[in-house]
Amino acid sequence: VKVKIRFGNKYLDAIFSVPEKKPTYGVILTHGAGGDMNFPHLVSLAAYLASHGVLVLRFTCKGLNVAYRTKAFKAVVEYLKLSDDYKLSGVFLAGRSMGSRAAASVIRQSQDDDDDDDGFIQGLVCLSYPLHRPKLQSKLRDEDLLLIRCPVLFVSGSADEMCEKQLLEGVVSKMKAPKKIHWIDKANHGMAVKGRTTDDVMEEINAQVFSWLRENVQLEHV
Protein backbone atom coordinates (compact mmCIF):
# COMPACT_ATOMS: atom_id res chain seq x y z
CA VAL A 1 0.00 0.00 0.00
CA LYS A 2 1.63 3.25 -1.12
CA VAL A 3 1.21 6.32 1.08
CA LYS A 4 2.50 9.87 1.30
CA ILE A 5 3.56 11.06 4.75
CA ARG A 6 3.55 14.74 5.51
CA PHE A 7 6.95 16.10 6.56
CA GLY A 8 7.04 19.87 7.02
CA ASN A 9 5.80 21.30 3.73
CA LYS A 10 6.79 18.18 1.78
CA TYR A 11 5.68 14.58 1.58
CA LEU A 12 7.74 11.42 2.05
CA ASP A 13 7.04 8.42 -0.17
CA ALA A 14 6.32 5.30 1.82
CA ILE A 15 5.02 1.77 1.32
CA PHE A 16 3.21 -0.51 3.77
CA SER A 17 3.83 -4.25 3.58
CA VAL A 18 0.71 -5.58 5.26
CA PRO A 19 0.39 -9.08 6.75
CA GLU A 20 -2.71 -11.18 6.10
CA LYS A 21 -3.72 -11.23 9.75
CA LYS A 22 -4.20 -8.03 11.74
CA PRO A 23 -0.72 -7.12 12.96
CA THR A 24 0.10 -6.21 16.56
CA TYR A 25 3.61 -4.95 15.90
CA GLY A 26 5.28 -3.01 13.14
CA VAL A 27 8.71 -2.14 11.83
CA ILE A 28 9.61 1.21 10.27
CA LEU A 29 12.46 0.74 7.83
CA THR A 30 14.61 3.16 5.86
CA HIS A 31 17.62 3.16 3.55
CA GLY A 32 21.22 4.35 3.73
CA ALA A 33 22.87 7.44 2.28
CA GLY A 34 22.38 6.23 -1.28
CA GLY A 35 19.32 4.57 -2.73
CA ASP A 36 15.76 4.67 -1.48
CA MET A 37 13.10 2.46 0.09
CA ASN A 38 13.21 0.13 -2.93
CA PHE A 39 16.77 -0.95 -2.12
CA PRO A 40 16.57 -4.75 -2.66
CA HIS A 41 17.62 -5.66 0.90
CA LEU A 42 14.82 -3.54 2.37
CA VAL A 43 12.22 -4.91 -0.03
CA SER A 44 13.30 -8.45 0.84
CA LEU A 45 13.18 -7.84 4.61
CA ALA A 46 9.79 -6.11 4.40
CA ALA A 47 8.27 -8.98 2.43
CA TYR A 48 9.71 -11.57 4.82
CA LEU A 49 8.47 -9.83 7.97
CA ALA A 50 5.01 -9.18 6.51
CA SER A 51 4.71 -12.86 5.59
CA HIS A 52 5.45 -13.62 9.26
CA GLY A 53 2.78 -11.30 10.62
CA VAL A 54 4.73 -8.07 11.16
CA LEU A 55 3.55 -4.83 9.53
CA VAL A 56 6.39 -3.00 7.76
CA LEU A 57 6.38 0.64 6.72
CA ARG A 58 9.39 1.60 4.65
CA PHE A 59 10.05 5.13 3.48
CA THR A 60 12.38 7.21 1.34
CA CYS A 61 14.09 10.31 2.64
CA LYS A 62 16.77 11.83 0.47
CA GLY A 63 19.28 14.00 2.22
CA LEU A 64 22.74 13.32 3.58
CA ASN A 65 22.28 15.21 6.81
CA VAL A 66 21.60 12.90 9.77
CA ALA A 67 19.64 15.57 11.67
CA TYR A 68 17.32 16.00 8.67
CA ARG A 69 16.92 12.25 8.25
CA THR A 70 16.14 11.94 11.97
CA LYS A 71 13.37 14.55 11.72
CA ALA A 72 11.88 12.69 8.77
CA PHE A 73 12.01 9.40 10.68
CA LYS A 74 10.22 11.07 13.62
CA ALA A 75 7.46 12.25 11.29
CA VAL A 76 6.97 8.67 10.07
CA VAL A 77 6.83 7.32 13.64
CA GLU A 78 4.16 9.90 14.53
CA TYR A 79 2.21 9.06 11.38
CA LEU A 80 2.12 5.36 12.25
CA LYS A 81 1.35 6.02 15.90
CA LEU A 82 -1.70 8.09 14.96
CA SER A 83 -2.81 5.86 12.09
CA ASP A 84 -6.43 4.73 12.25
CA ASP A 85 -5.83 1.94 9.77
CA TYR A 86 -3.28 0.11 11.89
CA LYS A 87 -3.63 0.14 15.65
CA LEU A 88 -0.27 -1.23 16.77
CA SER A 89 0.92 -2.12 20.27
CA GLY A 90 4.42 -1.09 19.38
CA VAL A 91 6.95 -0.48 16.66
CA PHE A 92 10.62 -1.24 16.03
CA LEU A 93 12.76 1.30 14.20
CA ALA A 94 15.10 -0.14 11.61
CA GLY A 95 17.51 1.29 9.10
CA ARG A 96 20.35 0.42 6.85
CA SER A 97 23.65 2.28 7.30
CA MET A 98 22.83 5.99 7.64
CA GLY A 99 19.19 5.07 8.14
CA SER A 100 20.16 3.16 11.28
CA ARG A 101 21.97 6.22 12.62
CA ALA A 102 18.80 8.25 12.12
CA ALA A 103 16.74 5.54 13.85
CA ALA A 104 19.13 5.51 16.82
CA SER A 105 18.87 9.30 17.03
CA VAL A 106 15.07 9.21 17.07
CA ILE A 107 15.09 6.74 19.96
CA ARG A 108 17.62 8.69 22.00
CA GLN A 109 15.71 11.94 21.47
CA SER A 110 12.37 10.37 22.35
CA GLN A 111 13.92 9.08 25.59
CA ASP A 112 15.30 12.55 26.37
CA ASP A 113 11.99 14.24 25.66
CA ASP A 114 9.96 11.58 27.45
CA ASP A 115 7.59 11.75 24.51
CA ASP A 116 7.55 7.98 24.21
CA ASP A 117 6.38 7.32 27.74
CA ASP A 118 3.74 4.92 26.40
CA GLY A 119 6.50 2.62 25.17
CA PHE A 120 5.39 2.71 21.53
CA ILE A 121 8.98 2.33 20.35
CA GLN A 122 10.04 -1.19 21.31
CA GLY A 123 13.54 -1.48 19.91
CA LEU A 124 16.10 -0.73 17.22
CA VAL A 125 17.47 -2.78 14.32
CA CYS A 126 20.76 -1.55 12.82
CA LEU A 127 21.70 -3.09 9.48
CA SER A 128 25.32 -2.22 8.56
CA TYR A 129 25.57 0.47 11.23
CA PRO A 130 28.23 2.95 9.99
CA LEU A 131 30.26 3.19 13.19
CA HIS A 132 33.03 5.19 11.53
CA ARG A 133 34.09 6.49 8.14
CA PRO A 134 36.26 4.12 6.11
CA LYS A 135 39.83 4.20 7.49
CA LEU A 136 38.82 6.72 10.16
CA GLN A 137 38.43 4.49 13.17
CA SER A 138 39.42 7.16 15.68
CA LYS A 139 36.08 8.98 15.41
CA LEU A 140 33.23 6.71 16.43
CA ARG A 141 29.55 7.49 15.89
CA ASP A 142 28.51 5.88 19.13
CA GLU A 143 27.00 8.72 21.19
CA ASP A 144 23.35 7.74 20.56
CA LEU A 145 24.03 4.02 20.98
CA LEU A 146 25.51 4.46 24.45
CA LEU A 147 22.39 6.27 25.70
CA ILE A 148 19.66 4.05 24.25
CA ARG A 149 17.73 1.92 26.75
CA CYS A 150 15.53 -0.25 24.52
CA PRO A 151 16.72 -3.54 22.93
CA VAL A 152 19.08 -3.20 19.96
CA LEU A 153 20.02 -5.69 17.24
CA PHE A 154 23.07 -5.09 15.05
CA VAL A 155 23.45 -7.05 11.82
CA SER A 156 26.88 -6.26 10.42
CA GLY A 157 29.40 -7.75 8.03
CA SER A 158 32.61 -8.94 9.64
CA ALA A 159 34.51 -7.23 6.79
CA ASP A 160 32.50 -3.97 6.86
CA GLU A 161 34.89 -1.13 6.08
CA MET A 162 32.68 1.28 8.08
CA CYS A 163 32.26 -0.89 11.15
CA GLU A 164 35.36 -2.67 12.36
CA LYS A 165 34.39 -5.79 14.30
CA GLN A 166 36.40 -5.12 17.46
CA LEU A 167 35.28 -1.51 17.59
CA LEU A 168 31.58 -2.41 17.41
CA GLU A 169 32.06 -5.12 20.02
CA GLY A 170 33.77 -2.54 22.27
CA VAL A 171 30.89 -0.05 21.89
CA VAL A 172 28.29 -2.75 22.45
CA SER A 173 30.00 -3.89 25.65
CA LYS A 174 29.52 -0.34 27.01
CA MET A 175 25.85 -0.07 26.00
CA LYS A 176 23.28 -0.16 28.80
CA ALA A 177 20.53 -1.50 26.56
CA PRO A 178 19.84 -5.21 25.96
CA LYS A 179 21.79 -5.84 22.77
CA LYS A 180 22.83 -8.48 20.29
CA ILE A 181 25.21 -8.52 17.31
CA HIS A 182 24.77 -10.93 14.42
CA TRP A 183 27.89 -10.99 12.26
CA ILE A 184 27.51 -11.90 8.59
CA ASP A 185 30.79 -13.66 7.94
CA LYS A 186 33.07 -11.89 5.42
CA ALA A 187 30.32 -9.45 4.37
CA ASN A 188 31.25 -5.86 3.44
CA HIS A 189 29.22 -2.72 4.17
CA GLY A 190 26.82 -3.58 1.33
CA MET A 191 26.40 -7.12 2.76
CA ALA A 192 28.08 -8.67 -0.27
CA VAL A 193 29.95 -11.91 0.45
CA LYS A 194 32.21 -13.58 -2.10
CA GLY A 195 30.81 -16.97 -3.02
CA ARG A 196 27.30 -16.30 -1.67
CA THR A 197 24.27 -15.02 -3.55
CA THR A 198 22.49 -11.88 -2.37
CA ASP A 199 19.36 -13.95 -1.75
CA ASP A 200 21.28 -16.37 0.43
CA VAL A 201 22.72 -13.53 2.54
CA MET A 202 19.30 -11.86 2.76
CA GLU A 203 17.69 -15.07 3.97
CA GLU A 204 20.16 -15.16 6.84
CA ILE A 205 19.57 -11.50 7.70
CA ASN A 206 15.77 -11.71 7.44
CA ALA A 207 15.57 -14.79 9.65
CA GLN A 208 17.84 -13.18 12.25
CA VAL A 209 15.82 -9.98 12.36
CA PHE A 210 12.54 -11.85 12.69
CA SER A 211 13.71 -14.21 15.43
CA TRP A 212 15.11 -11.25 17.39
CA LEU A 213 11.83 -9.33 17.01
CA ARG A 214 9.98 -12.37 18.25
CA GLU A 215 12.24 -12.61 21.31
CA ASN A 216 11.50 -8.98 22.13
CA VAL A 217 7.71 -8.90 21.95
CA GLN A 218 5.07 -11.03 23.56
CA LEU A 219 5.46 -14.26 21.67
CA GLU A 220 1.79 -15.00 21.20
CA HIS A 221 1.32 -11.91 19.06
CA VAL A 222 3.82 -12.67 16.34
Automatic annotation (TrEMBL):
Domain KANL3/Tex30 alpha/beta hydrolase-like: 27-211
Pfam families referenced in this protein's UniProt entry, alphabetically: Abhydrolase_11 (PF20408)
Gene3D superfamilies: alpha/beta hydrolase (3.40.50.1820)
Protein name from the UniProt record: TEX30 protein
Organism: Notiomystis cincta
